[in-house]
């Protein structure tokens, strides 16, 4: 599997997305601006934000400053953001406009419902607003985050435009096989947040042994695993050296046996937020 930091995959709507992105959860202000700039300078071309992170402006500023300095077009960087809360059709429209204004990037490459909370009718109305924003050219692609099997099946049965991807917690310790299966069946790409399990399993013997074998950091083993699972992967860090090292995962490949072994480590680990079973 020959991959690079610039590799992309085609989504179900025909648009493409870089396979590796940079997550910005729990980053605000100058810290966020610097981290995004360092990521772009290191070669990342995919930045993941959210209204809930309160950093859309800093992400947008860093992207625009980088593009101006490098004399690159807006299309050179893929930007994702997310709806903070599912409230109503009108509230979603207003939220999208607010995000557009905050990031200052003319359009949003990928807009996600951040979660399924709110119930079937509210989800339906918010998704309708997102679909209309796509038709209006405000966003290029639309998807969901933290949706469980029941929420995906609700969309499939409802005959609505399906999301291009579902961003969920995915790593060897949280494999979410049921959600992955439904997404694969319906050509919904999978995007892994917390691909590093928030550092909670860096000392796991299996991860340590592979890191030793390949001369890599535990984080690099987990990122490589995610990429080989064909998950779009968005590790995050506030450290410039870590941001750079997390991108150095394209000069080795885990064997099929090693991938199967890592798959077997699933313990349904939840490192942060898991609304995938909400009504």
Automatic annotation (TrEMBL):
Residues annotated as domain NADP-dependent oxidoreductase: 21-267
Segment forming the signal sequence: none
Superkingdom of source: Eukaryota
Matching Pfam families: Aldo_ket_red
PANTHER family membership: 2,5-DIKETO-D-GLUCONIC ACID REDUCTASE (PTHR43827), ALDO_KETO REDUCTASE FAMILY PROTEIN (PTHR43827:SF13)
Protein name: NADP-dependent oxidoreductase domain-containing protein
Organism, as annotated: Somion occarium
Lineage of source species: Eukaryota, Fungi, Dikarya, Basidiomycota, Agaricomycotina
């Amino acid at each position: 599997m020959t991959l690079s930091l610039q590799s992309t995959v085609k989504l179900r709507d025909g648009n493409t997305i870089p396979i590796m992105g940079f997550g910005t959860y729990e980053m605000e202000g100058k810290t966020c601006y610097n981290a995004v700039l360092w990521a772009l300078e290191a070669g990342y071309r995919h930045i993941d934000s959210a209204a809930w992170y309160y950093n859309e402006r800093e992400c947008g500023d860093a992207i625009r400053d980088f593009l101006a300095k490098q004399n690159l077009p807006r299309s050179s960087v893929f930007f994702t953001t997310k709806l903070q809360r599912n409230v109503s059709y009108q509230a979603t429209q207003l939220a999208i406009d607010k995000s557009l204004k905050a990031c200052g990037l003319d359009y949003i490459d990928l807009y996600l419902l951040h979660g399924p909370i709110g119930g079937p009718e509210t989800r339906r109305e918010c998704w309708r607003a997102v679909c209309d924003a796509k038709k209006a050219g405000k966003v290029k692609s639309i998807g969901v985050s933290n949706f469980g099997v029941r929420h995906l099946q609700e969309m499939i049965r409802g005959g609505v435009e399906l999301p291009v991807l579902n961003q969920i917690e995915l790593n060897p310790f949280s494999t979410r096989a049921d959600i992955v299966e439904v997404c694969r069946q319906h050509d919904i790409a999978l995007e892994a947040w917390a691909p590093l399990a928030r550092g909670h399993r860096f000392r796991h013997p299996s991860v340590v042994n592979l890191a030793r074998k390949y001369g890599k950091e535990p984080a690099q083993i987990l990122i490589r695993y995610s990429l080989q699972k064909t998950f779009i992967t968005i590790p995050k860090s506030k450290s410039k050296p870590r941001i750079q090292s997390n991108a150095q995962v394209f000069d080795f490949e885990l064997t099929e046996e090693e991938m199967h072994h890592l798959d077997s480590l699933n313990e349904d680990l939840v490192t942060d937020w898991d609304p995938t079973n909400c009504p």
